[in-house]
Amino acid sequence: MNTDNFTLELKNITAGYGESEILHGINLKVKPGEIVAIIGPNGAGKSTAIKAILGLLNITKGSVLLDGNDITDTPPDRVVTKGISYVPQTHNVFVNLSVQENLEMGAWTRTDGIPERLDEMFTLFPDLREKRRQAAGSLSGGQRQMVAMAKALMVDAKVLLLDEPTAGLSPKYRGEIFSTIQDINSSGVPILIVEQNAKQALGCANRGYVLVEGTNRYEGTGKELLDDREVARMFLGGGE
After folding, report:
1. Which tens digit of pLDDT belongs to each residue from 91-121?
2. What is the pLDDT of residues 120-161, one digit of tens each?
3. Longest Cα pair distance anywhere in the chain, in angstroms?
């Protein structure tokens, strides 16, 4: 039972690959209904934090909690069944399958309710309904990212992890993706997002964390971080 009212929590996580330590005691929290952004320079450990949650690397200290339950070192396939959905930055759709087939593949842990969930996804992502028979590989980068998010949400997600969802997209599609992220969140799904487009990420986030060299450097509400001159100077391309 989640007595602290955090959907997802990383507590003093030290982790890395083999002998190489990337994260040095980081702390992150996602409350129910929140969008939380992780920003920072390249190599800061942002995507590594996501991999720690997913059980994809060696955690040597600390714990990962989902709804107050310790899931540290849970194998990746079991992490998904516990309600953590994940959209990687690349290779996140089956390009030769149709949009609908991709979504059906995303429902691999469901035992029932797939037609109803499909309809919910096509309501949440209306552009995909008319393209449901098209191969995912024929879509634009932004539309493909929407397929990836819809596929991840075919299960009943307790939290959605997004790794660089706007990477390589035009400004127009970046705006559409962030709008869609807010729509997903409004449907009741907490979201943890790793993003290089820091201003836009903090603009839609309830709270944010700035990681530097695998440690927590700053944290606060999205607005607080956007208004912080030091954060702006170092990470947002502005400030005095």
Report:
1. 999 999 999 999 999 998 888 899 999 999 9
2. 999 999 999 999 999 999 999 999 999 999 999 999 899 999
3. 56
Going by C-alpha positions, the residue among 54, 69, 9, 52 that lies closest to residue 34 is: 9
Cα–Cα distance measured from residue 1 to residue 3, given in angstroms and rounded to the nearest whole number = 6
Beta pairing, strands 84-87 & 159-163: parallel
pTM of this prediction? 0.93
3-state secondary structure the chain: CCCCCCCEEEEEEEEEECCEEEEEEEEEEECCCCEEEEECCCCCCHHHHHHHHCCCCEEEEEEEEECCEECCCCCHHHHHHCCEEEECCCCCCCCCCEHHHHHHHHCCCCCCCHHHHHHHHHHHCHHHHCCCCCEHHHCCHHHHHHHHHHHHCCCCCCEEEEECCCCCCCHHHHHHHHHHHHHHHHCCCCEEEECCCHHHHHHHCCEEEEEECCEEEEEEEHHHHHHCHHHHHHHCCCCC
Domains in the chain, start-ordered, CATH in brackets?
1-83+157-235 (3.40.50.300), 90-156 (no CATH)
Could you count the other beta carbons within 10 Å of the beta carbon of residue 47?
Answer: 17
Closest among 126, 180, 129, 188 to 157, alpha carbons compared: 188
